[in-house]
Amino acid sequence: MLTLPESLALHRVRATDLDAVCEGRVVYAPAKSAWTLGMLAGAVIGGALTFTWPAFLLFVASTVLVLLLGHSLGNHRKLVHNSFQCPTWLEYTLVYCGAQVGIAGPIGLLRQHELRDFAQRLPTCHPYLRHGTPALLDAWWQTNCDLRLSSPPSIALEPRIAGDRFLRFLERTWMVQHLPWALAFWFWGGWGFVFWGVCGRVSAGILGHWVIGYLAHNKGDVVREVRGAAVQGRNVRWVSLLTMGECWHNNHHAFPGSARMGLAAGEWDPGWWVLSGLRRIGLVWAIKLPRDLPYRPELHVVATEFGRGTRGRRHTGTASEVDRLGGSEQAAEQGRRIPALRGDGVERFKYLRDRSIFH
Question: What residues contact residue 239 under an 8 Å CB cut-off, 6+ apart?
């Protein structure tokens, strides 16, 4: 019988039988598959037949826009983790951009995220939820199938989400929301703009989401380990700009409530850059960083250098206290110059405290 880790006591997922979260079967989802394959066919076949440079530029610009503002800021950092505050009109705009990614509606995406996050923090996790099969099979599962659990847990959404009329409207109509843009693009530039600006963008969002999800749980650097968890997030350094900073997944597993994902110098995080800009003009406030989050005793550093990951080396000591207080811009800038210290987290914290890094 699995026991509930302390950090999951206030999680949105409510499960009395934790083993049930790991037991289930993957089933083909016809509607999901038709959407994925239909968009992919439009992107590949239609895009090849109607290619123009303006259409390609529309694809690049629209994809960057929805991934940055919608998926990273709207859906993930705001809706799921509520890691910053902003005016309601701005939140709705960001979440609307998230629906344009084409993966799911905002509430459905939130529920998927929470179930996966809950399961990955348990000692065992279903292969579907941890990207635990060979790449091609996992790609088929994630983009064309659903996991049907034997005893699905309840997912308690707070009233600000469950009762929000705009979010519920987007949830019901997220597929239809692509139609106005398809019509606008058709009037603007013909079928080439539709295939590249809608089908290409949605296909890039779906496939890109899977690629990063697979890599971030199987390949890359491990800086911090969440002990007792079945899955460790990994930092995939070479795709930081393409993912708008979402590739720093080891950082995110350690500090899921942090609005900043690139924590050390050189960890580029476009989502954080935009949030910083919005904060300067007063549109964003109450931004959460690692130092603002609850202490996690199960969090341990695996790196030989603060803020840098390793692939083959083992522990140099625990550093929950360091990471709990970390995340400031000054610490991030100086992180690469801090040598590893052997010993417990208190020793490492004293080393950093004495050098005024967290002051």
Answer: 212, 215, 247
Exposed/middle/buried for residue 49 (C-beta within 10 Å: 0-12, 13-18, 19+): exposed
Domain shared by 161 and 244, yes or no = no
Which DSSP string do the residues of 263-293 spell out, in sequence order?
Answer: -STT---HHHHHHHHHHHTTS-B----GGGS
Sequence-distant (6+) residues with CB within 8 A of 63 are 200, 201, 204, 205
For 330-356, letters b (16+ CB in 10 Å) and e give ebbebbeebebbeeebeebbebbeeee
State how far the alpha carbon of 358 is from the alpha carbons of 22, 54, 67, 288, 350, in Å.
40, 48, 32, 16, 11
Give the chain's domain count. Answer: 2
For 168, the domain range is 6-215
Dihedrals phi, psi of 11, to nearest 5 degrees: -70, 155
Asked if residue 53 and residue 186 are part of one domain, the reply reads yes
Confirm whether 141 is domain-assigned.
yes
Domain assignment present for 223: no
CA–CA separation, 6 and 330 (whole Å): 31
| Cross-strand bridge partners of residue 26 | 147
Distance of CA 337 to the CA centre of its chain: 28
Q: Tell me the pLDDT tens digit for each residue of 115-151.
A: 999 999 988 899 999 999 999 999 999 999 999 998 8
Q: 143 and 198: one domain?
A: yes
Q: Which residues pair with 28 in a beta bridge?
A: 145
User: Kind of pairing, strands 13-14 and 154-155?
Assistant: antiparallel
The tokens of 117 are what? Answer: 């996050």
- Give the pairing type, strands 154-155 and 24-28: unpaired
Q: Which residues contact 141 (CB under 8 A, 6 or more apart)?
A: 26, 128, 133
pLDDT in tens, 256-278: 999 999 998 889 999 999 999 99
pLDDT in tens, 17-42: 787 788 899 999 999 999 999 999 99
